[in-house]
Design brief:
By secondary structure, this protein is mostly helical. It has helices at about 70-80, 130-140, 145-160, 165-170, 185-190, 195-215, 235-245, 310-315, 340-350, 370-380, 390-395, 410-435, 445-500, and strands spanning about 90-95, 100-105, 115, 250, 255-260, 265-270, 275-280, 285-290, 300, 330-335, 355-360.
């Protein structure tokens, strides 16, 4: 069999693995949701962008529970304790942040280790399959960790009570809060102003492309082992939704990715930095508190230094405005096609792995030097053509000399260029926020109406947070430009005064 590769989302790619034996996705599958392969049964077509706007997202899978269910969570806890989970100082309760969460039962001091989930209760790429024939086929085909675990989860879920993981699967949300479950119409309507829309579309494309690859290469060849009523696009969207929101990377286990029951009930707070890892001394998955907790108080971990858009993309929530110190928004910038040096500048960018359209993260604290370098290139005149490659290199994040990188004669124009881009984006956000209440007005039942209200609120919260960063950047840029131009006027006035004096 010829070896080839699959176009998977970067997070699906395991480190230092042998080449994958999957066919690359064709460019025409840019948005597989719109035109699913006809030979794949139309549960794939449920994701079609041409479906009516009022269509709900995938109706869910026959396993799992409502995301706020405490009954299934209590059953999970009993099963975990019976299976070797040590006595806990935390309990699952309904909470204000995250529907369900782990709450302190006793006083917990800063620096304490908690959880101690044994490896036998952790799902990894090496976990034993309840249906060993399915596992053997997947491993024979060298399926990477992400799609392997996604398929494992579906296989175990389909066995219901026959799987040792049935209590865990029953406690997983039937419909994860993930952008994987937003329709194309919802993405286009509610996230029209946010750059996270493109990432969501790409993520859905990657998941569906991965499913199509597995279907063509493996599932369709052995339908007895992989019946389509079990292994289909609906179940894969569900399993990948679970992975995006719950899979963790364990640094002390060589970066292995894993699902950790019980630990994955912990919610995220931007105010903490502690994370899950394998503790060699106790031989369990733990985290070390970086603050104290009182009884009844929700205990948090960090899901990583992620922007509000990234948290919505994977986890389905947006922190309150101004509470996320890691927040950022991508600013899209581009060369001007009317520029007489457009071709030369584009060639310089391409030589350094960039294109005429690039995005750079803006934070409340400022913007990256790469953005400034790109802006220098955009505004540079023809007589500076010998500097185009240097500017493109600095914009590419490959140069080690960027801290001192500067073109004082271009700084005002470069800052004005960035300001213009910011203000264009602010206008787009403001237009969306002013019209959001009138968007996607269609006939819907009570359940659809509730879902629509939730999505509108999430999108509104995200857009307000991202626009806040743009406003802050706008303020800084305007002040710097005002100071620069004020200084120039003062210098010109002084020069004219001296000239009159000497006359």
């Amino acid at each position: 069999m010829a070896t080839s590769t699959t176009a998977l989302h970067p997070q699906f790619r395991p480190p230092r693995r042998a080449p994958r034996q999957f066919r690359a996705l064709p460019p025409s599958s840019l948005y597989s949701l719109e035109r699913p392969r006809t030979r794949v049964s139309v549960r794939a077509s449920a994701a079609s962008a041409s479906a009516p706007a009022q269509r709900e997202a995938a109706s869910g899978v026959p396993w799992g529970c409502e995301i706020e269910s405490l009954e299934s969570a209590a059953s999970l806890e009993r099963w975990l304790v019976d299976s070797g989970l040590p006595e806990q100082r935390l309990a699952i309760q309904r909470v204000d942040v995250g529907e369900r969460g782990l709450v302190a039962l006793k006083n917990i001091r800063k620096g304490e280790k908690l959880l101690f989930v044994p490896p036998s209760l952790v799902i990894t790429a090496d976990s034993e399959w309840s249906c060993p024939e399915v596992g053997a086929v997947m491993k024979k085909n060298s399926v990477p960790d992400w799609p392997l675990i996604a398929t494992y989860l579906i296989s175990e879920a389909s066995l219901e009570g026959s799987s040792r993981w049935s209590s865990y699967i029953a406690a997983l949300p039937r419909q994860p809060y993930s952008l994987l479950y937003w329709t194309r119409a919802e993405l286009d309507t509610y996230l029209v102003a946010s750059p996270i829309r493109e990432r969501a579309i790409q993520r859905i494309t990657d998941v569906i492309g991965t499913y199509n690859d597995l279907h063509d290469r493996i599932f369709s060849k052995q339908p007895d082992l992989f019946p389509e009523e079990v292994y289909n696009i609906d179940t894969f969207l569900w399993s990948f939704g679970i992975l995006f929101s719950r899979l963790v990377r364990l640094p002390s286990m060589d970066g292995r990715v894993a699902l950790v029951p019980w630990a994955d009930m912990l919610n995220h707070s931007p105010e903490v930095e502690t994370f899950l890892d394998f503790d060699k001394s106790s031989q369990g998955i733990v985290f070390t508190t970086d603050r104290s907790y009182q009884p009844g108080e929700q205990v948090f971990i960090s899901y990583g230094k992620k922007s509000s858009g990234e948290l919505l993309l994977s986890y389905g929530f947006v922190p309150k405005e101004g509470t996320n110190p890691n927040d950022s928004v991508e600013l899209l910038v581009s060369l001007k096609k009317s520029d007489t040096c457009y071709k030369e500048k584009l060639q310089a960018l391409k030589r350094n792995g960039l294109s005429d359209y690039e995005s750079f993260p803006l934070r409340v604290t400022g913007w990256p030097v790469e953005l400034m370098a790109y802006a220098f290139l955009v505004v540079s005149p023809p007589e500076m053509s010998q500097c185009f490659d240097e500017m493109a290199l600095a914009a590419s994040n490959k140069s080690s000399s960027k801290p001192g990188f500067s073109y004082p004669e271009l700084e005002e124009q470069a800052l004005q260029f960035i300001l213009d881009c910011c203000e264009s984006n602010i206008t787009k956000y403001t237009k969306y926020l002013e019209g959001v209440d009138n968007s996607l007005q269609v006939s819907m039942n009570a359940k659809q109406a509730s879902r629509t209200l939730l999505l509108k609120q999430l999108a509104r919260d995200l857009c307000i947070s991202e626009r806040r960063i743009l406003y802050r950047t706008q303020f800084i840029l305007r002040r710097r430009l005002r100071d620069m131009r004020g200084g120039e006027l003062r210098a010109l006035s002084l020069f004219n005064g001296l000239r009159k004096l000497f006359k």
